[in-house]
Amino acid sequence: MRETVAIAAVASSALLASLLQTIMTPLVPVLPGVFDASAAAVSWVLTAALLAACATAPMTGRLGDILGKKHVLVGLLAVIAIGSVIGALSTSLGGVITARAFQGVGLGVMALNVGVLRDTVSPQRLTGAIASVSASNGIGGALGLPLSATIGELFDWHGLFWLASILATLCGVAIMVFVRGGNRRTPARFDWAGGVVLAAGLTAVVLAISQWPEWHASVCAPLLGLGLGTLGLWAWLQLRTRDPLIDLRMVFRGPVLMVNLITIMSGFTWFAIPGLVARLLQSQDGSGPGLDLDMITASLVIIPTGLSMLLGAPLARRLIARFGTRTVIRTGSLLTGAAYVVGLIWMDHPWQLSIVAGMVGIGSVMIFTSAALAIVGAVPVHGTGAANAVNSVLRWLGSTIAAAVLGAILAGIATSYDGIPVPTAPAYHLSFILAAAAGLIGWFLGAFLPRHRPLPQRA
Fold first, then answer.
1. Dihedral of the CA atoms 223, 404, 84, 18 (nearest 10)?
2. SS3 state of residue 295
3. 387-396 pLDDT tens trace
4. What is the full DSSP assignment across 341-373?
5. 430 and 102 Cβ atoms separated by less than 8 Å
6. Which parts of the chain span the membrane according to its record (predicted)?
């Protein structure tokens, strides 16, 4: 019973973190009118959180390994609560962007959850516990869209920040009270220089990719090159540091490398639900395939993404126990790829896209659970936090690439309807094909994973 409550407490923090990733998305179109700002300026409400998450997650993951994952997890929930209060009290766009940056730092909890479970849950229950956390990651993301849309329609956007601050506080208290253990420490020096260089490199890369459609290649290409060069310098320094921020030899070990590459693909397919399917549902139906639904209705149509993850978590646990992570991660990748093939053929009615969303949800929970277990089984206990942080950053990177690529396609292959650019059928067809290809690439990469790994044991 005690372990069950502890798992629920950790899963609640995963639910909150995934909620924060999407909770502001439906409000971005209305915020320019609220703050009398341009759409480009308002887009930083989303970009700030992503940049902060990518820049700090490797550092907070490593701090969890050194100081104790539970301590750092609770600290990050406190950062979310503080940032949310800042947002709730803000009356300017700058205040909201600052609040979102705080929340982005707090998204590092997604990298620490698995490590806390590894330190506190019995090996027999670890697969199910990680499946629950993986499902929570998806459920929060799916619920964030309709929740944000509903609160935005009925109340005021400040309510979203007050809600986040309350939930973060409750999650922190629950983890402090109900999670026993999770404070395993690893004597080591924290590599501050490595953290700063890595943060700079990741910030440049993510900023270049996310802003490519807005800033164009003349600015973003040099920025991307600078970021990649900085990451190359960081890697060179890490290989010569006694206590590196991230053990690159561990991260580039065969199974971990393949899992991380698959994670990039899963980040792409996961983002295609809010970035492609939701866009199709809300797009005006002038001369394209758009279904012209309002924001709340469109959000409800794709809710099967989260519900199927909830129902698919026990299935993923049983399949992993029976067939191993390799088979399940490949099956999940194939299922997500097949989902977008279905969407390519069926995009005329909301119920058809609900099926697509449900298939992606089941496939994603299989991928996320298998990936977490594969990493836990391949790295030592003292490297769990950093390894999972890298995996989280790569998932966000995959979603960032999807946002840039799909956004460019939908904006570039469009027609005008009542003076508003509307994506055409070929734009949606190409986007669905790319999302399906990402799933199939993940399936192919899974062939290079070991056929079966035993359940990880606590050291």
1. -120
2. helix
3. 888 998 999 8
4. HHHHH--SSHHHHHHHHHHHHHHHHHHHHHHHH
5. no
6. 37-60, 72-91, 97-117, 129-147, 159-178, 190-209, 215-237, 257-276, 296-316, 328-347, 353-381, 393-415, 427-449
Residue 292 near residue 348, CB atoms below 8 Å: no
Check: CB of residue 114 under 8 Å from CB of residue 386: no
- Amino acid at residue number 388: N
* pLDDT tens per residue across span 282-338: 887 655 677 888 878 888 898 898 889 888 888 998 999 899 999 999 999 999 999
Most confident segment among 139-143, 266-270, 406-410: 266-270
Banded pLDDT at 188 (limits 50, 70, 90): confident
How many residues in total does the chain contain? Answer: 459
Helix ranges (DSSP H) in 239-349? 248-251, 254-272, 278-282, 295-301, 304-323, 325-345
Q: Which tokens hold the place of 371?
A: 């990936």
Q: How far apart are CA 445 and CA 443, in angstroms?
A: 6
The CA distance from 104 to 91, in Å, is 20
Q: Treating both helix axes as pointing N-terminal to C-terminal, what angle do 109-120 and 350-378 enclose, rounded to 10 degrees?
A: 60
Q: Is 426 helix (H, G, I), strand (E, B) or coil?
A: helix
Q: What is the pLDDT of residue 100?
A: 95
Global model pTM greater than 0.90: no
Instruction: Write the Ramachandran bin of 216: left for phi over 0, alpha for psi from -120 to 50, otherwise beta.
Output: left
Q: Is the pLDDT confidence value at 154 over 80?
A: no
What tokens appear for 165 in the block? Answer: 């601050």
459: exposed, middle or buried (Cβ count in 10 Å: 0-12, 13-18, 19+): exposed
